[in-house]
Amino acid sequence: MQFQWYPGHMTKAKRQMQEDIKLVDLVIELVDARIPMSSRNPDIDELGKNKARLILLNKADLADDRQLEAWMNFFKEKGYFAVRLDARSKAGMKNVQNVIMDACAEKIERDRKRGIKNRPVRAMVVGIPNVGKSTFINSFAGKACAKTGNKPGVTKGKQWIRLNKGVELLDTPGILWPKFEDQSVGLKLALIGSIKDEILNIDEMSLELIRFLQERYKELLTARYEGIDVDAKPVEILEQIAELRGCIKKGGDIDYTKTANLLLDEFRSGMIGRITLELPEDYR
Fold first, then answer.
1. How far apart are CA 274 and CA 226, in angstroms?
2. Which of 141, 33, 165 is nearest to 86 (CA)?
3. Considering the entire predicted model, what is its pTM?
4. CA angle (79 as vertex; 57, 116 as ends), nearest 5
């Protein structure tokens, strides 16, 4: 499978961010806690150099708790501030304001020495499509000030949002990078829903997900789909799930696409369990 998705508005968004980065003190980058590296745009590091950096590991409720702690330590070792977060339920939101102030402590102290008081920290919120930027901003602000949607690419233009006396946020559209050097990155992004399903081969993706679950989360596969042989070939496991869930066409044939969609939905919603698709040691 080849993964690629780079709509035209993303080129424009990147150019706009290169202009706007001059206006901010801090870059707040949202990543998906299930794929913390694959859901980062490498361009952001270049854009945000010389700025304070905060990484929010969002959708933490769907990620493997042990691996989440390992990822938090991984980013802190690299000099980032990091917070685990579930923007939908607001879990972890209380920590964000304090960490923003910690991340910008030098800037605040510089302002104080110059006699500048009460100038808010200006932060740019960045992230690839569908990591939950708008949901985070709305939860953080306590009101619906940014559009939200569970489809990639809802935020198209930029908007400044005054949160309180201390912080102003600049929301930006989600941008992917033009070409995936590593197709496994594209696969992981596709699995969590950051690339539109309509342009993907869902059947093949489901088999890749089964392979991964067999390798690292066999016990979750067994618990969710009772009675299946988790050591069988991925396509045979998909067939067993089809029979278990009644995904059968008229005439008794297995509906592979319906089963694949069901499996992906149950993975994305956390029904199979808390799963992380990549580990810090993969990147050390």
1. 18
2. 33
3. 0.87
4. 95
